[in-house]
Amino acid sequence: MPDRTNPPQPPVAAPTATFAGILRPERLAEHVQLRRWPASPRVSHWVENYWSLRWDLPEGASFASEVLPHPTCSLTVERGDHPRPELAGEEVVVTGVVTRRFDVEIRGSGRVAGLRFRPGGLAALTGQSAKAWTNRTLGAGPIVSEAIVAALAALDLAGDVEAGTGAVEDGFPERAAQDARYHRVLRVVADMLEDRSILSVADLERRHGVSARTLQRDFLHYVGVGPKWVLARYRMHDVVEALDGGFDGALTDLALQHGWYDQAHFTRDFTALVGLPPSRYRRAK
Fold first, then answer.
1. In this structure, are 29 and 164 located in the same domain?
2. Which range of residues forms the domain containing residue 197?
3. HTH araC/xylS-type domain: which residues (predicted)?
4. How many domains does one find in the chain?
5. Is 164 in the same domain as 31?
6. Per-residue pLDDT tens digits for 103-136
7. Which of 209, 181, 194, 205 lies closest to 121 in space, CA to CA?
């Protein structure tokens, strides 16, 4: 008979995010120390990785950090001379999926540490809908457990942040719930990342045997945005990564390779998200 008191844990998911998205990462590295480290098996059902930022700029200096965010929620503790206005006095916050370019002006000194959830991970953990967090930064108290909030607030951001993440993990459930819809979201997202030939939701329907309507419903609940948006964002990450890596071919070829059917639509989408046309972005490198 199966052991119903200790059901098997769901398998650890394949990677569901990359480290792409930072515009001109070499410039960020001149001003900000960025660290990333993997989540432990204890929480990896929900969490993709941990990360931290620290900076100490001289008085009067500043740097505009620009990021094309992932379809993920983050849980962070943030301290500094010039806190983000959207924190509204909170130190431990949840930031939902951001559908636009994420801009932060780096000034003075600051420290940030946090968890990047898998797409849908925070909704699966809390049972809440990610739609409520899209394009919002909220105090974490009403969303995650008091134990997680307290452990994040207690992190020594000036010291060894990684050493304190065990206490954060202690606030997570011992076992993940069996959630077939969340597992399907993870499989679909992992497929988007693994196979660059997937360029449309119709491709996902055929490969996973699920309707576009079901995918839309599941993604809106767990991720906070639809599957078409997620796929387009990952492909835009690929485009920016190629340009940052020195791609010097025709932009029309780059657009076609990543799912755009003509350069006009590609240029429009790139400009709307990044803030300047791809030709200018490449020249500014």
1. yes
2. 180-283
3. 183-284
4. 2
5. yes
6. 999 999 999 999 999 999 999 999 999 999 999 9
7. 181
